[in-house]
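Good day; I would like, with your permission, to put a structural problem before you. A protein sequence and the structure tokens that stand for its backbone fold form the material at issue. I would ask you to consider whether the tokens describe a fold that such a sequence might reasonably adopt. I set the record out below, with my sincere thanks for your time.
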Amino acid sequence: MSKNSPQRFDRLLRPGRWVRDFVDDLAVASPARLAIGSFVAVVAFFAILLMLPASMRDPGSVSEAQHIANAIFVAVSSVCVTGLTPVVTENYWSDFGISVITAGIQVGGLGILTLASVLGMAVSRRLGVRQRLIAQQATSALNLGQVGTLLKTVVITIVTAEAILAVLMFPRFLIRGESIGDALWYSVFYSISAFNNAGFTIHPGGGAYFASDPWILSLLMLGVFVGALGFPVVLMIAMQWNHPKKWDLHTKLTLTTTTVVLAAGLLFLLIFESANPDTLGDKNAGHTFVEVLFMAVMPRSGGFSTMEIADMSQSSHLLMDLMMFIGGGSSSTAGGIKVTTVAVLVLAAYTEARGLQDVHVFGRRLTSSTIKLAISVLLTGAIIVFIGTLTMLQISAEPLDKVLFEVISAFGTVGLSSGVSATVNEAGLYCLSVIMLIGRLGTITLAAALSMQDSVRLYRYPEERPVVG
């Protein structure tokens, strides 16, 4: 008997330990590939559940091929916390199906790797180095020492925020005439959908059902805004809420850029839609401001909408395209290329325009690797949107404006729809599903998964500067 036999025998008797060791080894070899594999596996699990006849309100109302495409699309949309759907949720899916979608949103919000790391903490009662590597890939923590605290913050933040939102929504649904059971269910569902930036609704007309209810709209906005900040930011504010000067650079950049993007979106949407008779032209100033503020928050990745996107002006469409592409904060439930990426690029361009050598902000100097990474994320995101738009134009008969809006919404995991998802064929649904998966997994994670290892050159070529611009 070999000396390794006792260990092998022990693993056979303790399959849980064998699975954990296997995951640990895979995480060390390629955390990014573990992330993608886990995410695809969870999407497949929820897709199978949605394919069941019990998930449909009216089994047999569509062909089997169409139902499979719908199930896969909605499974991806829920786990990727996007909100795009080819069907009317409350009409197509049964109570069981809607429960599956809700569970998918919650799992997607937690993040597959984050959830796996938390379960690892519960089993081992401590977070080892390998689990920290897994969690760091999922949360983008600045160093391994922060991961344990950050993971706890992830769970505590989600549970606490969703509970607060549900408690605040519950009496309002009672006032609106709902029964206690329905009010409780609606409160739980919309708190999960809002904080995880999913944008799924189960009322006729979607978010427009609450267009005249500023209380519900405000809570939905609050949930989306906090969820899109990112857990590192939430962690920093929670620890240093009374000492803003001690906030790290990531927190300051995220809050500053988010404020600028939100303010710009609010201003321009007011200009573009206040006189639009199809959206806000016949509404009073107070109602207009609340609804425009709501629509300015949603392109961060929220997905709720009180207006028909098709009725909005072309200028608003283009503005929202840009806002959806930017998205929210890093390590958040939001998608897009992230606000910190945009901040770094703007600062780099400003520094170059002034002829300075180093990029400085808030008393800190940005490294060249950070700037290169921001450029890579931008270009990768733009290429994905370009290829996705070209593909969808070939598949669907919709115009460029609507297709581009839908593709960016899928890539940014936003959920706002120009109507393409509801009319496109099965091939189009599968294409958008792939775009949502890529958008949720992130361009950095995808690039890391495709790279076997870092290559280092032992030599450098002579330097020469081409003419640019």
